[in-house]
Amino acid sequence: MPSYSKKELDDIYNKTEGYCNITGIKLSRINYSNPDGRCQWTVDHSNARVKGGSDLSRNLFPVSAPINRMKGDKSTRTARRWFGRTGPPLTKQEKQVKRLLNTAGFGLLGFGVGVIIKKSPWLAALGTSAGAWFGYTRNPGR
Q1: How far apart are CA 85 and CA 103, in angstroms?
Q2: What is the largest CA-CA distance in the chain?
Q3: Nearest Cα residue to 84 out of 26, 137, 139, 22
Q4: Phi first, then psi: what are they for 61, rounded to 5°?
Q5: Is pTM, for the whole model, over 0.90?
Q6: 90 vs 8, higher pLDDT
Q7: Are 41 and 25 in contact (CB under 8 A)?
Q8: Domain extents for the chain?
Q9: pLDDT tens for residues 107-123?
């Protein structure tokens, strides 16, 4: 197993803001390669070394230790499919953008429903509020 400096581990961990690159579960920074720790994680080569993957930082991601062992030399894309995921965890900024788009989209949908059903400005306002709340509370993850 390669040895990584504290800075390299921090950089790898922070790529996904501490979430497993395959399952999306939150990992514990202090439990890197700690077999007894909760939310333990290891460095995963997205493109496995045995299949030509490199040790460059763009190929290294944090992954839950048991999942990484299970993944073996399979691709990250294949492993994500096992958990019904299509992509890596979203960053905070990506989550904010998705949440904003969900809020706006469902708010407009609620407004449209309110106008169509009763043609009442109060119902349209209520539909907008309900739609915006629903859009905001939806999970913006992948």
Answers
A1: 23
A2: 66
A3: 22
A4: -140, 155
A5: no
A6: 8
A7: no
A8: 6-82, 92-137
A9: 777 777 777 776 777 77
